[in-house]
Specification:
This protein is α+β, with helices and mostly antiparallel strands and 159 residues long. Helices cover 52% and strands 15% of the residues. It contains 5 helices and 4 strands, in the order H-H-H-E-E-H-H-E-E.
């Protein structure tokens, strides 16, 4: 039992490292590339779907954006890394993707100096799905961070 608890603790720390690494990468791109950072972000999130085709979730096989996000959200909830994810439709092509009860929120959201300039890793997956199913590149939006989750707006990049 103690070995199992140690494994879970270590896996959570690995997740913390990956969150911090992704946030550092996003900040570095923005710092050195400015608005041109999107040039690198969008191919990276598109690559997520290509990688997923070799995995078990297979998000790209869904029939719609909403279905793909629901499959992803269910996977995260079954994995116990979030309590839930919610996709709210605001307008025709504008959505808010919410992560509630993220296991990393207490560690990562409090540990970082500022999270005002980065996007939640789960929201990046939602952005990749948005592009695939809606045909729009989402405006890169920084997530809003809360004590137990995030909220990220997905809408077409009109620039």
């Amino acid at each position: 039992m103690a070995e199992s608890a140690e494994l879970v603790k270590n896996l959570l720390e690995v997740g913390t490292i990956y969150h911090s690494l992704l946030f550092s990468y996003q900040r570095g791109l923005k710092k050195y590339m400015g608005s041109r950072a999107d040039t690198y972000v969008h191919p990276a999130i598109e690559h997520l779907l290509q990688m997923d085709q070799q995995e078990t979730i297979k998000l790209a096989e869904s029939q719609s954006f909403e279905e793909a996000v629901a499959v992803f959200s269910d996977f995260l909830a079954r994995s116990k890394v979030v309590r839930s994810c919610v996709l709210d439709k605001i307008e025709d092509d504008k959505y808010v993707f919410k992560v509630v009860g993220c296991v990393w929120a207490g560690k990562v959201h409090d540990r970082q100096v500022s999270l005002k300039d980065v996007t939640c890793p789960y929201a990046l997956v939602a952005m990749a799905l948005y592009k695939k199913f809606k045909g729009f590149i989402s405006r890169e939006t920084e997530s809003e961070y809360f004590y137990n989750g995030t909220q990220t707006t997905l809408e077409p990049n009109t620039t």
